[in-house]
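fyi for ur records
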Amino acid sequence: MNITIITIGKKTEQNLADSIKTYSDRISRYTPVSWILIPSEDKTSEGAAILKKINKGDFVVALDDKGKEMSTPDLASFIDKRMVSGDKNLVFVIGGAYGLDMAVVERANFVWSLSRLTFPHQLVRLILSETLYRAISVIKNEPYHH
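which gave:
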């Protein structure tokens, strides 16, 4: 299974980019991970650009504050089910400053909330990359989770 993370906004600030790369490299030991950066525009244009990057068979997870929250073990189970089900591409979508266009949310197979708190979307990139690595370490029975 491949993991793709689509995000809206500017290039990640260097101090965050280094940490994101570290976690992405760790994830890549188990499954390929790639990042797609789409420049900020209006919400509708961002939504259209996101949808162009998503293939028909992709399993899409939209990050949205109205989504379902999960614990780390829940996320590990969720990812493991995607792997076992034969999904080839698991796509996570991080919206821009004003959230995701409704067309993206409607296309999503699952809507996930990292937290009810509000975070800058550059920080969400780091939180997501670390959280995905932590969940994969649970799946692989590695000690990182603790």
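The chain has a mean pLDDT of 94. thats all i got for now
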